[in-house]
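INFO  loader      accepted 1 record
INFO  loader      residues=220
INFO  predictor   begin
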Amino acid sequence: MEQQMKVKQRTSKTRTGGDQQADNNVSTTASKGSISRHSTNKTSTKKATSTLASVLQGLALSVLFVFLASYLITDSWFWGYKGKYINRRHWFPPKEIVFTPRELAKYDGSDPTKNIYLAIRGEVFDVTAGRPYYSKGGGYGFFSGKDASRAYTTGCFQTHLTHDLRGLTPAQVADIDGWANFYRNHQKYFRVGTVILDPIDPNSPIPEDCHKPVSPKPSS
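INFO  predictor   done
INFO  writer      dumping tokens
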């Protein structure tokens, strides 16, 4: 009887030891599987990062090649393009300013320490980059510090330096709009705001054309 009990105890211990060994094997296998999956994920992440870096590097080299080719062929970095999109002010415009005619007149180019502004159709543009042309005495200095929209189409710089467009033809008004677009899309000039224009008295005379033929002086 005692021998049978001893045999059962040894058998139970053997089974218990076997179960523990099996559990240890399962735990080890699971741990190895977890490590393997983690390693696989790290490898995949590294591959994805490496691929992205290669793509970005390729794009950077392509862009650099385009710029270099442009400079070699056209002697400019942008294939001869001279529009507003190479003007940083187009992408980062200044805060809009609303001027009165008197305030705008302070930027007529007579003060070398101030920017030069002009207005056309109520829009104010910074033309400081063209100071030799728009300062006092420059070829276009009469446009600075005011809205002289009418003169842009008539070429009359004596009596038409005004925003009064009465009497102009649709084609002339369209011509003025074309000048406004010129300043909007310029590579160096840019919009800074608007000007509050004085109202035009409808009963006042239309500005006289300075190109109008002068009547001959009557003989005495």
